[in-house]
Every structure is written in C-alpha cells, then in structure tokens.
Design goal:
Chain lengths: 233, 409
Amino acid sequence: MIEIKDLHKSYKMGSNSLHVLKGINFKVEEGELVAIMGSSGSGKSTLLNILGMLDELDQGTYTLDGVPIKNLSETKAAQYRNKFLGFIFQSFNLINYKSAAENVALPLYYQKVPRKERQEKALKYLERVGLKPWADHLPSELSGGQKQRVAIARAMAAEPKVLLADEPTGALDSKTSYEVMDLIQKINDDGNTILVVTHEEDIAHMCKRIVHLKDGIIVEDKKVEQVRAAQYV
Amino acid sequence: MFNRDSWKEIFETIQKNKLRTFLSGFTVALGILIFVVLYGFGNGLINTFNEFFEDDATNTFFVFPGRTSKPYKGYKSNRQIEFDNSDLADIEESFPLFVEYISPRVDRSGMVKYKNESNNYTTRGVSESYQFAEKTIIMKGRYLNQEDIENKVKYAVIGRLVEKDLFKNENAIGKYIDVTGSAFKVIGVFQDDAGDDEERRIYIPYTTRQLIEKNTDKINQIVIGFKPEIGYSGAMAFEKKLGDFLRDKKFIAPDDQRGFFIRNVADQLKQNQQFAGVLQIIVGFVAFGTIIAGIIGISNIMVFVVKERTKEIGIRKALGATPRSVIGTILLESVFITTVSGVVGMVIGVAMLSSLGDTLEDYFITNPFINTGTAVFATLVLIFFGGLAGYIPARRAARIKPIVALRDE
C-alpha cells in the first residue's frame, strides 16, 4: 500500500539547514495498523506529513497504492489527498461553523458527490462513531472525544485507502483516548490501513506494529501483540 | 463554480459569519452611498450655478451710456452720452449680419395702483423683442408686440407678483392699472426664473414711455441680441465693431473707454462655463477619492477575512480542496457580498438624493441627482476591485502549504 525508499527531508532555518529525515525505508501493507513512535524532534510528524502529501520530500521515492507521489501540482495533490487519504489531527481541525454532519460531508463535497448522498453518507459514518444524535451540533457543543470521533468519521467518509492519525489522542484524557483507540481498532478490523503517530507507549501497543524513529532514521520496526482498547473502556 | 452546491456553501458561510459579512458589506455599501450622495451634491451645485447664470439669454450685449473722459473733436471731456431712437435703427442697419434683435430699455420706478392696492414697482419701457433677452415666460395674455410699439398704446405686461400684490385673487387681464398717473391696460402676466425681483416688474412699450415724457426720443440702455451662430469669436468681434461704431457716431475719442459700456454676456458665459467645468472636476476628484477609499476598505477586510480563514483553508486543502475551489469559494463570496451591498448602497444613495429634492437649496444644492450610468459604473468598479481585493489574498492562501495553514492558530 505504502512504499518509501531512501526518504530525505530537511528544513531551511535561516542559513542553517535542519536535516530531519535521513534516509527512511518503510513499507506498509493493506490492513495494517502501524504506530510511528519517537520523541519530539525525531521526525515522526514530518514523515506523516510527507505520507499525507501535506509536505514535499527532498529525496527518495514514495509510492502510494502503486502511484508514484512526486512533483505533484497543488491541484493533483489535493485530488490524491481526497482520493487516497483521510486525516485525523491532534487538534481535531473541525470547521467550527459547520455542524458535525456538515464537517463529515465536506470531503465528499470535494469528491463532487451529490448532496443527498453526501448527507446520507455523513449520517452513516456518524452513526458508526456513535454520534448520530449529535449530527446537527456545532463542534463547540461537543466534548473533545466527540470532536475526535467526528474527525474520524470525516476521515472515513471519503473512503480513503489510508487513514493518517497525527497524535489522535494527544489532546484527550486516557479514558477518552482508549475510546478513540477502540474506534480506530474497529475501523482497522474492517480492513482499513491506518498509521498512527504517537509518543505514548500504551497507545502504540494498541497497534499491530511499532516503528521507532530516532534522529531521522528508523531504529526499530517490530510487530507487536495488539492490546485491545475495549477492555479499558 | 456556479452550481447549486457552491452557492449553498457560500450562503452557509455568510450565514454563519454574520459579523464579518456585515463589516465587509457595510464598507462597500457605505462607499457607494457616499459616492452617490457626494456626486449628487456636486451635480446639485452645478444645477444651482446654472440657474444663477442661465436665466437670461446668453447671446446678449447690454450697452450703457457713460461720461466721456477725454475731449474729442471740439467736445469737452466729462460729457454725458445719451442714446436715442436713431441709435437703435443705425445699429440694426449697420450690423445686419450680427444682430438678431434689438431693444431699448427705459427704466422708471414709481407708484402703481389698482383700486385700493398700491405699491412701488419698476416700470420698464422695452420693445417687443426684449422678451427674448430676458427669457420672459408669459403665463396668460400676451407680450407686447410691434404694433403696440408703433401705436404707442398704453398696454402693460405685469409680473406674476405684481398681479398677486395688486389684484389678489382677481384676474388682471383686461383691467386698468394706474402707473404714476397714467392708466395702462394689463394685457399679459409673466413669470421669470430669476426670482422675485424680476417678477415685480412691469413692461410697457418704450414709445409710450417716451410719449408720456414729453415725446422725447431718449433711451437709457440698448439691449442687443446677436445671432447665436456667430459663436464666441464672432461675438467678440461684434463687440469691438459695435464699440468703434458708437464711438464714431457719438464723437468719442477712439481710446476713450468711458463714454459707454458694453456688457457682453457671451464673455461672461464663457467664464461661467469654465467655472462650472472646474466644479465638475472637483466633484469628479472627490468621487474618485471616495471610490479609492472604498476599494482600500474592501481590500483591508478581504485580507483580514482570508487571514482569519487560513486554518480553515488548510483543513479544506487536507480534505481535498483544490486551489481552484479555494479561490473560487472566497472570490464568489466576496463578489456576492460586494454586489449585494453595493447595489443596496447605490439604491439607498439614489433614494436619498431623490428624497432631498430641493430641501438643500439654501446650501446652493438644487435638485441633486446622479445618472444611473454613473452610479452603476461606480458600483461595478467597486465590485470588480472588491473581487480583485479578494482574489489576491485568496490566491496566496490557496498556495500556502496545508501543513503551514493547519499550524496557524
């Protein structure tokens, strides 16, 4: 599903250049649930941003579902993001003046899905994250956990190949975090490929594979026994 | 770009960001409103101006007698010059190419009576063509005619206010008024745009006036209407020739400027038109400034709006919004707001102007107006620049990497 070879990325900071990713080789198969771990500054968010086509790579190759991702125009990148990827952010990033259902329907709007179908799908995914009764509520009327579940529903609504979650539990207490992880595990159970960036050990162990990043290179890549989040809920 | 979904999206955004929408709309509406009102006031000023100067015919010379300042051909200086009937005939004969009409003017003021009412009025002895010089409008009856002049009849044409003062609600036509001891039959009532003073005048045949004054042939002033087709330069040439002719006839030294005076309305008209032109330029300048201020206002707000929405744009881009759709949405929204509020501002401005009417006449603003073309053009300019003002920051926002936009708090 995802294949990265010899990925380099550096940022210019004034006259200095900060080498963040120093040759990453990385492969993800369909249906995997991968945790990307590392301390802050290890490059894990940068890696996720490149995977999400939110940022560009300097060197190396990136293939997503057989499509090489290189030198994309803004328009093309937007289309690929819409088609291939669903994002879950630490700070939820819901549009604050749109209701839960409207937020979920937004990626479908950019897929030019007819209005009625959009609404139906949005409700379907809200139901899946258990928030159908909250469909007409604004983000400001929802709790943190609920917001993240709306964001997950939105990421899934476009039916992407890969879900990318950047610290999805970073802004939540542990109980809510487990609820969110439970949801992510269930989505993965349905066969979706999911990448989770986290620095929390317990969250990482709820995935099926952990990739450790340190100073811009992968220091460890291991399969783990998945801890089901449901037992903590 | 113009499908129902994008409109729905825009209406939702507008509805949910009422303050922002109100602010940008208000700026645009206010800009257009001020433009329309200012421009209308400018036109009102010009109207007032035209009313001041365009009451009388503009193709007219007024010739006043004076006193010579130099001795000439055996005549002493400081000699009073007088005009008489022969001068009228001579001028008409000598300048057939220039003269359209000629009329003397003999003013006397005195008590005018009708029954128990009396008042002091200026009675002006004129010929029938004086009507053109003064642009007198006959309300009822008729003006003096050539026959009246030849027969030296005691007919009078009175001003609207004379009738009102003396006759109250009675019809003056056919009645006799007493003008300093002579009975005159009222044959017409006139009005004049120049105001109350002019409408308190009485016109009688100058020949009748001369008859009353011991059958003299003296006249006070001469009013000459020249043919409009000779133009400004023709009028100036005519003025010079006429001066030379009269100086020669009255034995006045060729370089003596004080024997008589010619007031050339054409010359004044030209100056007045220049003044009106300057007024128009000032009005145009102020209007232009207002539009510029309006454009800057919208630009500011659009920059702010786009800045405020940077994060939202980042989210949308992460969800698959193309740069085109980002720009399209912002642009359509700004053009929509500017159009609606621009039209609202324009309509309010036009309504204000037309409701003002003549209420500001005391401030020299008469009947302020703006022609629809100018108002619509100004609105379109503002809409265009409002769109442009939205487009530039929107394009920049669409170019921002989503990761940068998402970081924006």
